[in-house]
Amino acid sequence: MPNYHLQEFDSADRAIIERLQVDGRISTAELGRAISLSPSATADRIRRLTDLGVIAGYTAVVDPEKLGFTITAFVRLAYPSGNYKPFDDVIASTPEVIEAHHVTGDDCFILKVLARSMTDLERITGRLATLGRITTSVVYSSPVPRRHVVADVRP
After folding, report:
1. How far apart are CA 34 and CA 13, in angstroms?
2. Closest of 110, 100, 101 to residue 78, by C-alpha
3. Hey, what CATH topology would domain 6-51 get?
4. Which residues of 49-82 are buried (b: 16+ CB within 10 A; e: fewer)?
5. What is the pTM of this model?
């Protein structure tokens, strides 16, 4: 898929991207009114942005605490092997790992983990420690828990 640059999107495209990140359930009619386009023109632009991969999907934002996950932690993993199958297998079978990022530096991966208790976190990190050296940081609070991608920032 080609790499599109911001200048290839006009102000209406950027407004659609911004608005859908805030409210993915907004109707095309309401969105069109907000950006001065007809519902069909708005739908066409959404379809084009989706086809380009700019809009990758729609999802509900869920509060983990309401589901009993009261602990969030970041686990840094120094993975000693170039064989990623064991890593992939453990991550695939550990649903409490909700994000995994391959990074530069001393650690190979940064994992975002949800746990229901410290005992649960200990179980999860014990499982992850079978892969390599880990360092765990428990989140006290999240002043910026989720921020949408700003479509109008230019270098």
Report:
1. 12
2. 110
3. Arc Repressor Mutant, subunit A (1.10.10)
4. beeeebbeeeeeeeeeeeeebebbbebbbebeee
5. 0.84
The CATH-assigned architecture of domain 64-138 is 2-Layer Sandwich (3.30)
Tokens linked to 27: 């109707």
Task: Give the pLDDT score at 150.
Answer: 82
Which residues lie closer than 8 Å to 134 by C-beta, 6 or more apart? Answer: 75, 76, 77, 78, 125, 128
Return the domain boundaries, the chain: 6-51, 64-138
Sole residue written with tokens 């898929």: 1
Q: In a 3-state reduction of DSSP, which class is residue 133?
A: strand
Q: Which of 85, 79, 130 is nearest to 102 (CA)?
A: 79
Residue among 69, 66, 5, 55 at smallest CA distance from 26: 55
pLDDT tens digit sequence for 34-93:
999 999 999 999 999 999 999 999 999 999 999 999 999 999 999 987 899 999 999 999
Q: Which residue, chain included where needed, has tokens 């407004």?
A: 15
